[in-house]
Design goal:
By secondary structure, this protein is α+β, with helices and mostly antiparallel strands. The protein folds into four domains: about 50 residues, no CATH class; about 80 residues, no CATH class; about 60 residues, no CATH class; about 100 residues, Alpha Horseshoe (Serine Threonine Protein Phosphatase 5, Tetratricopeptide repeat). About 40% of the residues lie in helices and about 25% in strands. It has eleven helices and ten strands. Strands 1-2 form a two-stranded antiparallel sheet. A two-stranded antiparallel ribbon has the order 3-4. A two-stranded parallel sheet has the order 5-6. Helix 7 runs antiparallel to helix 8, helix 8 runs antiparallel to helix 9 and helix 9 runs antiparallel to helix 10. The radius of gyration is 38 Å and the shape is elongated. The chain starts with about 30 loop residues before the first helix and ends with a helix. The N terminus is likely disordered.
Amino acid sequence: MNYIAGSDRGEALLLPEVLDDYIAPENPVRFIDAFVAQLDLSKAGFTNAQLKERKKELESLAQDLGKSGGTQVSLTDPDSRAMSMGRGSTIGYNVQAAVDAKHSLIVDTQVTNTTSDLGALGIMAIKTQKALEAKNLSVVADKGYYNGKEVLVCDTIGVTAYVAKPLTSANTARGLYGKESFTYDAKKDALRVKAKPEMVGDSQETLEYTFDPVTDNTAQVNIRWEKVRVPFTVSIKDVNALAFEKARAAVAAAKPDDFQTPLQAARFAIQNKNADEGMKWLEQSIKAKPTFGNLSAKANLLWANGRKEEALAVAGQAIERGKADKVDTAGFEKRVADMKAGKL
């Protein structure tokens, strides 16, 4: 049986606001309405009608929830909330209790419908301090209470809080070392890592450091000694950006006669498709000291940028300098010949 749609009693009108307002409370239709409400319309085939009524109920609940400013609503106990219980949850209350460690007596309690313990440490410390009439206290709480603002509240009123810090690093869940495993000493420029050692079958007589595997932005460091291996991963978000930053700083600090530093930086820049800085650093290297290395590199870069006449002129200078310095220029001379022949 199909649901026959008509005018909805909740349909908005001008005066009165809805159609239902026309029906007086003592009208006989109210009896029919109450009777229909008790029927299982889904068994009678009125599936759409039941869904429509359910939609109204949910919309009404959503409006009430929006007005209250809350995030949950309980249909059985208005004051209860969904509470996390290990891997699951239950509908209930959050009960806080302060217990005297020496005598195992409950000092104070508080029942709330707050779904987290994060904001409970400070208020419970204040209540406990008041109940015991103690100026200074030491409190111990698990990591569910770890909240910087709450710890500050405790410190302000003379309560020393000992709260375990939760491990929130995403790396820990992925089987990697989290932030808590790393400490950096800026004065010594040294990184200290807490790592879990592994036992291996073969023995390494001397202390050995290896880097394997290595990717574009990570490297696993392996420390070996006797039958112990300690692996940990070092990761850099943007290796090239960091390398360019270091290269620019090194070139800027290079002495006037240092041609090697800008040459190495230029080769790195050219390799990473940064021709502008590559050419700039080559010019600095040549200015410090013209060599076969920096001149031939400049010739190749000019050729790659389509400046062929300039490239051949600089290539001639490179070959001349190389022979004067007794450098093997045979390979580069063959390349220049190919340039002139149009083979490149």
